Every structure is written in structure tokens, then in C-alpha cells.
Amino acid sequence: MTTARATTRRHTVIDSPYGPLTLVATDGVLAGLYMTAQRHRPPEETFGTPDPGPFAETIRQLDAYFAGERREFDLPLNLDGTPFQRGVWAELQRIPYGETRSYGELAENLGRPGASRAVGLANGKNPVGIIVPCHRVIGASGSLTGYGGGLDRKQRLLAFENGTQDTTPSLF
Fold first, then answer.
1. Residues classed as catalytic
2. Residue 81 phi, psi dihedral angles, 5° rounding
3. How do 9-14 and 21-26 pair as beta strands?
4. Radius of gyration of the chain (CA)
5. Do 49 and 10 contact (CB within 8 A), yes or no?
């Protein structure tokens, strides 16, 4: 008889220039980074017990990113999704800081040239925004299309990475 292993979930909330961010860990590994009013944000009761313990390195790297001192994240991630979604999320992590790709380009890179809409859906379900940089994906025409955290945040993140962010205080 096999026994199912219990999963431990913990969370904490940190401040950022883009509003509060809720970090969620499953068995001590980052599994979620959610913004307030984010589309596809899981219910709060699924985040587990409040405990900042598992997040020290994540917070350190996010602080360095927001200070302009870090361009890539080096964190273990526990991304729960379909094989296609995980493939899209892996492709997102290959988009360099300050650059963008279209949904169609990501679909091509995945060997699925007709799957730009499916890529968009998977992009929208990314559970670890900012660290898995779904904000770097734009429409084929270069337009800012969809972002679970809101288009204003997407525009501000892209401007930040391009060094053109204005200095007005966050509205979040």
C-alpha cells in the first residue's frame, strides 16, 4: 500500500514597486508569485500558512531585480501545469531582460507555429509572474496585449527593463 505524501504550502506577502506580491511555496519551493487583482489568481485559502521562511532567497533576488541590479533569476521553481504550459513557461525564461517576443515567435520556438493562441492562454496561466517573465510577450504588431496583472503593470515592467520607466509613484 502506497501512502500519498503530504504537501506543505506556505506564503508571504512582500511590497514591490508594482504593488503587494504574494509568494507561495510548495514543499519549500517557489510555486507562485501573484499580484493583487491578478487574473487566474488562486483563492487565498490555497496559499497555505503564512510563513516568510521559505522565501529569503526569492525576496533577495526580487529586491535586486527591482533595484536594477539583477536581470535573471536563479531560483528553483515548482510550476504546476500541463506539459504544454510548462514548455511555454520554459520558453518565457529564455527571453532576455529588456527584450520582447510575440506569441507567434514563442509558438515557432516550441515547434508549434499555429499555436499562438494556445501560447497566449498558457502565458496567462503562468503562476510565477515577473520571475517567469510573461510580461515580455507582446502581440505580433508590437502591441501590448493581455497581462494577468493588468496592462498598466505590463507597460511599467517593460519600461523598467528598458530604462524608460517614469518615476511616478505606484498606483497599486
1. 134
2. -170, 180
3. antiparallel
4. 16
5. yes
78 backbone dihedrals φ, ψ, rounded to 5°: -115, 85
pLDDT at 167 over 50: no
Q: Which three cell numbers stand for residue 170?
A: 505606484
Cα(24)–Cα(32) distance, integer angstroms: 5
Phi and psi torsions of 124, nearest 5° = -65, -20
Exposure string over 12-28, b if 16+ CB within 10 A, otherwise e: beeebebbebbbbbbee
Question: What are the tens digits of pLDDT across the range 95-137?
Answer: 999 999 999 999 999 999 999 999 999 999 999 999 999 999 9
* Beta-sheet pairing, 21-26 with 29-35: antiparallel
Amino acid at the residue 17: P
Q: Taking Cα atoms as reference points, which of 44, 41, 24 lies closest to residue 32?
A: 24
